[in-house]
Design a protein that fits this description.
two-stranded antiparallel sheet; 474 residues; six-stranded mixed β-sheet
Length: 474
């Protein structure tokens, strides 16, 4: 068992303690540098126990812990890139230094530039060195434990019984690298009894993989691509994404135009996690923080308007003003999307139906809500819950997901990210009234995955606001 949570906790505690020590050492430096005895502080103890310094000693380390979270340092795996760790620590120390100087220490700045520079570099040096040294020691210690086999990941290899030699080649590559410990094999063709040359009892069929992962506490899955091409492999990946287990594949096997993999370390074994996008942990954390902040703001602003609209919906047609509908989210997890009701309560019977322009099931109030996308406002609650993001591929219903996958297996790749309230597909293509429309819109969602970034999200949000203000809905 890897103990990833415990390892992260060690880093958090080390960072908190070392940041407190760095701030304390800096205040001691300030005492002797500023000659504060002339300002009424007669001893170092008097200076350090002043109310302002005590408040700063509490608030600033907490601020830095937030910066460390946003930097993605706690999202890293056991085997960290030392170069990345060095650069991340350097950058957060610089941001923390500039923030503290301009927010709390601006009065300490004088006309003596040499002394001001010394103050700046001393704070920067302490925030960097005192924090980085414990991090480096923890990282080196962890690497030794991985090499000794004390830290490992329970790993399944998924391949094809018609190509048994691929199992053996992959086993030679995986064993002993980056803490991956092979505990079983899975045949994606469900013909495991015909596969020879593997240890007795370690081979199972794909239909049993959910139970296999639960029983063996699987933490990693390594996939062998099918020799015939990616269409077959994508069908297997679609089933694996449901497991909420990182899925890896050999780097040289990846088509970059589909996956856009990110290499996090040059010394690492060339396996790429394809169950996630190429975004760095810091970008993912910033994106999530932005999602939560905007959703909290919008929920507060829209609470009264949504309440009034809810009353209007109930006056026009009987039934709840809110509508819950199952959608497929990240990792193919099913969740209930929250919308303001725009159709009659008896609008659907039997097989799910798509809405279309001029749909008679849509109420008069519903047409207005859809035109200005007001029916989407309750989805900010989905964002707060973590089901959705502000920007991402639009989530579809399970029934239509299966239909789209039959048309284009690449659709499964969008389930690597949280779905969004708005998307590139929505602003470029709009609502889909047929499965064919969904497939066409999907191409924009896949294009978004290739170009996903904070900047791209901001552009999509601005275009969405323009569409909403112009009433360009269904």
């Amino acid at each position: 068992m890897s103990g990833q949570r415990n390892q992260t906790l060690y880093y958090v505690l080390a960072d908190f303690l070392s940041t407190n020590i760095a701030v304390l050492l800096f205040n001691i430096f300030r005492y002797y540098d500023l000659e504060v005895v002339n300002k009424g502080f007669f001893t170092l103890t008097d200076f350090l126990s002043s109310p302002m310094l005590i408040i700063g000693q509490i608030i600033f380390p907490l601020f830095m812990m937030g910066m460390y979270y946003l930097s993605g340092i706690y999202s890293s795996e056991h085997i960290r890139s030392r170069t990345s760790e060095f650069g991340t620590t350097l950058l957060t120390a610089l941001i923390g230094t500039v923030t503290l100087i301009f927010v709390a220490l601006i009065n300490d700045v004088t006309n003596d530039r040499k002394r001001d520079y010394a103050l700046f570099f001393m704070l920067f040096l302490l925030l960097f060195a005192v924090v980085y040294i414990p991090r480096l020691l923890l990282t080196l210690h962890t690497r030794r434990k991985v090499r000794c086999g004390k830290i490992y990941y329970n790993t399944l290899i998924v391949g094809y019984s018609s190509y048994p030699q691929a199992f053996l080649r992959q086993r030679e590559r995986v064993e002993g690298h980056n803490g991956l410990r092979i505990i079983g094999y899975v045949d994606a063709e469900n013909r495991s009894r015909f596969c020879k040359g593997l240890p007795e009892g370690m081979l199972a069929d794909l239909i049993d993989i959910h139970q296999r992962c639960s029983d063996l506490k699987v933490e990693r899955i390594v996939v062998i691509p099918h020799p015939s091409g990616w269409v077959t492999t994508l069908g297997v990946l679609d089933k694996l994404f449901e497991l909420e287990v990182p899925v890896y594949i050999a780097a040289e096997s990846l088509p970059p135009y589909v996956f856009s993999p990110q290499i996090t370390g040059l010394t690492a074994e060339p396996f790429i996690d394809i169950s996630r996008t190429h975004l760095s942990p810091s970008t993912l954390n910033i994106k999530r923080t932005f999602d939560v902040m905007i959703s909290l703001l919008m929920t507060a602003i829209c609470a009264i308007p949504v309440g009034l609209i809810s009353v209007a919906i109930m006056i026009e047609s009987k039934g709840s003003p809110f509508y819950l509908q199952q959608r497929v989210g990240r990792g193919k997890r099913i969740f209930n999307i929250i919308k303001l009701r725009t159709m009659r309560t008896d609008s659907e019977h039997g097989e799910p139906e798509l809405s279309y322009r001029g749909d008679s099931r849509v109420t008069g109030m519903g047409r207005w809500l859809r035109r200005y996308h007001i029916d989407e406002l309750p989805q900010f609650l989905n964002v707060l819950k973590g089901d959705m993001s502000l920007v991402g591929p639009r989530p579809e219903r399970p029934h239509f997901v299966e239909l789209i996958l039959k048309e284009n297996p690449s659709y499964t790749l969008i389930h690597r990210v949280r779905p969004g309230i708005t998307s590139l597909g929505m602003i470029k293509y709009g609502y889909a009234s047929t499965v064919e429309d969904m497939v066409k819109r999907m191409n924009y969602d896949l294009l978004y995955l290739q170009n996903i970034s904070i900047t791209t999200d901001l552009k999509i949000i601005l275009h969405t606001i323009d569409n909403v203000m112009g009433g360009r809905g269904i």
